[in-house]
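Checked the freezer inventory, then went back to the computational side. Two predictions to log before the end of the day. The first one is the construct we discussed on Monday; recording sequence and tokens without edits.
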Amino acid sequence: MAAEIAKFTTEQMSDMVGLLSPCMDDYLYVCDFKEDYYQISPGAVNRFLLPSDHFHEVVKVHRQVVYPEDMDMIMVELELLSQGKKTFHNLHYRWLGHDMEPIWINCRGRVLNDPDGTPRYLVGCINEIGAKQKADNVSGLLGEFSLRTCYANYVPNIPDGFLLRLGIDEFRDINEIHGSEYGDYILRKTAQCIEENIKPGQKLFRIVADEFAVIDFMGGTVEDARKLYRNISLSILDFIEENQYKAVYTISGGILDNRCIEDSYESAMKLSEFALSQAKKGGKNSCHAFNAEEYAAYLHERRLLHALHHAVNHDFEGFEAYFQPLVGAADGKLSGAETLLRFHGEDGRMVSPGEFIPILEESGLIIPVGRWVLRQALDACREWQEYLPEFKVNVNLSYVQVLKSRVLSDVRSIVEEFEMNPSSVCIELTESGYLEENTHFDKVWNGLKDYGVLLALDDFGTGYSNLHCLSDLQPAYIKIDRSFMAKALNHEYEYRLLGHIVEMAHSLGLHVCMEGIETEEELARAREAEPDYIQGFLFGRPCSRAEFFRKFFGEETA
């Protein structure tokens, strides 16, 4: 057979590759050892970092396309094949895609000899072993690869209609409780529940894990998709009942109007995934239609998160500590300042704390940023105590810091780093975040108190506001929330309640700070309730360290 095949020329072998390639998903190839020539299916050029579908200098080009860590292995293999020491090639390794990311392939081939017995050709095929399957044997549906192909037939002119992306809620629980085999059964039954509700012309695919996709290219509307989702949910309820409630589960759905798709399959997947995640965030067992404004806000949040990451990794570039004065209620004299975090975005504009602080907390970046803020506060406090020895600085502490970092040792080490008296620092925690019966929180809170740091319960009046909370925490201060103060200063009932709060706090040995005082009239009214400290725009807005110094210790005080 080798002698007969050797009658084919390299050109004829190459023509055969070109002839058969359109009939196959794999990539056919022929390597001519004698001519140092390589020919592969044209489609491979679109997928891999190949200069062309045919080239000379086989080893040199392979050095460009083969993942560097795999190149030595390929060189050994080619040496064995070209010397006739191996006649069959079957190897798993990686080629590079155009994005320079590795793609796993299985390369197989057979050596064909010249009439004199020397190896002449390596003929075979390459297939992606990491590629998505076209069909899913578990659910009996076409898979993600087939969904991609379906969209490719229409891009860029995708017809009107919708994509309904469905996900089983808490599917992991089903696998953990009943096993993966039963989980596969649930996937099949869910697929059946979906199939029995879709219209002729609509297509169903299983995409990732516990998710399915229904596509409509026939002009279906978002409301049609909502109705389809409801019908599928009812069918699943019927199945659960017929199955005697062995596994009770729900599905969530994300709806994408085809007109929102940005002319690509990737866009359809990206936007539908966002819609589904919104449904799950909203409590699951619900359906959510893609909204461009919501998505824009999401992207803005992602960009802000990236900017915050960049700032933390570049010496906190863009962050700034601001300070707002705290004054004695009776005489209006400066006693300290609350430290407030500010952030300037990539365009230099200041970002609202209400926007970036929740992102810091959710991402965990609040932990390193919190340490940075404390250092800024203590550095300023140390300087200002040269002018006012009793000056104290307040620093807000996030509950993420309390629960997920070594905040007690952090506070101690930073206070000692600046050689400060611990009582010069007041840590503020929000009352609304108070966690009952949390031993770690209690350990941190009590540890800070034992160390000598003052503790304040911030935003009092918005959370529990009860004696049990005060009894458990026993803070040094309570800070009356500005929203409650606004009511108390304008309504007699709330004002009387304010007076009772102050009286109660004093009876427990606590100091009271009232926030949000902006006018002389408000100050006079607040003083009648006999607080210990006042904070508000009347005495100063939050400002930079330099501006705070000029206003309270510099030339402006002369």
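The second is the one RB wanted added to the comparison set:
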Amino acid sequence: MNVQALLVEILTEELPPLSLAHLSESFGNALWDGLAAQEFLSPECSMTIYATPRRLAVFLSSVRDKQPDQMLARKGPSVKSGYDASGQPTQALIGFARSIGVDPSDLEQEDDSKGRYFVARIVQHGQMLDVVLAGTVSEALKKLPIPRLMRWGENTYYFVRPVHGLVMLFGDKIVQGSVLGQSSGRSTWGHRYMGEGLINISDASSYESELDEKGKVIASFARRRSLIVSQLEALALEQKARVFGDSLVSGKSSKNNVSLSSKAAECLGGDGLLDEVTALVEHPKAYLGHFEGEYLNIPAECLALTMKQNQKYFPLVDQSGKLLPQFIMVANLEPGDGSRIVHGNERVLRARLSDARFFFEQDRKRKLEGRVQELQGVVYHNKLGSMLDRVLRLQTLTGKFAREFSADKTLVQRAAWLSKADLVTGMVGEFPELQGVMGAYYALCDSEEPRVAQAIEEHYHPRFAGDDLPVSSEGACLALADKLDMLVGFFSIGFIPTGDKDPFGLRRHAIGVLRILVEMSFQVPLPYLLECAVAAYHSARPSLVSELYDFLIERLKFYLRDRGYASDEIDAVTVISPSRLDQLPQKLAALQKFRQMPQSQALAVANKRIQNLLSKSAGIIELKQPESTAFLEPAEINLYAALIRIKPMVEELVMAQDWTGALVSMASIRPHVDQFFDEVMVMVDDILLRENRLRLLAALSGLFNQVADISRLAS
């Protein structure tokens, strides 16, 4: 058996840059899995994945040229039916032996649950790599996450882009085969302008070095990315600046229009732009460019998005995070003199920035107030009315919520009225990512109250995982109203997220609601908020409040798990249908302290027993307090006395939201609980006695459940 390196390369037209890294990783994993399942990979095999704008390639360091032989056991007829009365083989046994090519006397016998039977041991010889490789590659390509396929020429093959070449090398030998209409070989293409053209790869192990030296193509995505990063950092350092990215944002927008907001950070996130640019070039070379300082009068977010989205440039900021009139471009070419590249890109950017300035200046000619009625013509959803209908609902909700969130009712309702007006501006039409941000700028230009402008921007927060929460009370109030209105609206027309389908991002909006309530510590009951939001839709079904509550509690479990809480602790605080979500972090902290106490495990076990007894008696016992005079056994009398003694103390601690103190107080009852279960039979024949004991247990369970259902804690 021969073991050597294997290279597979698919040469294509330019692949989608935003999905290149994912495509290459998926291709590598699928090819690995396919060959591993057929036992072609040796134990020491490692994989290297390559991806450039025009190729997907996989290098496997140690591959067998032939599958290992396998010893297979083939089951035959039973021993009883294998021989006749005279001891001669039956036709069934003779036929089975003939199909294997052996004499009946050479067959072995084995036992199973049904009796003894004949078995034949046969050797299945492994297939050769050149027989199965093309098919395995084809199957791997079919598994790639490609939303849209295309067909090219007159063939019947489909792929994400037209395929123009196939390399399959085992060591220095070509593995013959055909994939997507291309016959395998050793030839690939280098850089369109800097390489030698068609390159013959001598062997699989020299693929990366030969493509680099002869073709001027850096095949490794990670290596190109690292090279771009080092070039960006070097050029920025020369200017005593920094490349803009999420970690470099200094704060929110300010009226001087030169501070980048977190909204621009989302759109211009370093990794996203960096990965996209890495996927666009085969031989990166970074250059510094400039634009006129007069353009800094435009909001910095507009400039940043123009550079990123339209041109794929990296803006530069100073040490305080303010945008500079400089940028870095990454070309797919390295000529002797890069000045023509720089001047050409500066000219293109200048035109883009002029467009942005035009939008900004034109938008400011009309006040936001004058644009609100235009929202009547903007469809929110064909079953949910116009965007103006939505604005009116937001006004109603913020009016109801204002006092609960300590927000100025007049200001927050004004912000709600203007919150969507920027959707009909030219700048947001060009850059939808800036909705809310531009609304805040235009509100300030219209001399609106600064808190109104701030709420307009903040009402989209948080927009993604880890995003900032609103800072102002008005912003939080409007953000919550906006997200709840969206959840209620789409739930009411049946757009409930299932599986991986969530076209309107309702899970994300749900997490936003939860984060605002929990992390900003608003003391507002969730059911009240849902009832208000549902009431704004007059035709909503009555069950919608409970449906949305259940949906939010499920998202809450994921949210709390991401924050590091254990699953059983989360179950313990959520199973009791919490109303005030702001209390949950303190309850969870108290629960974590409680479970460190020596009494906690015994009480958790006892509570599980209590819950089991109560669940079996659901609907039998009346919801009233136990009768002290009906107890007979000392253990139940003692437990009841202990319950009466600690109940006022626990309730006082719960009222004070001292959850730890409440649980510690309840832990003192443990000896009486142990004694009760050791000495008292609950499910006795006497109905009155049984029900009274069940009421005692129900009272005890209710006391514990004011903090959490400790029966949910795992041992």
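For RB: The chain has five domains: 3-67+128-213, 70-124, 221-363, 368-564, 585-712. The chain is about 45% helix and 15% strand. Let me know if you want it refolded.
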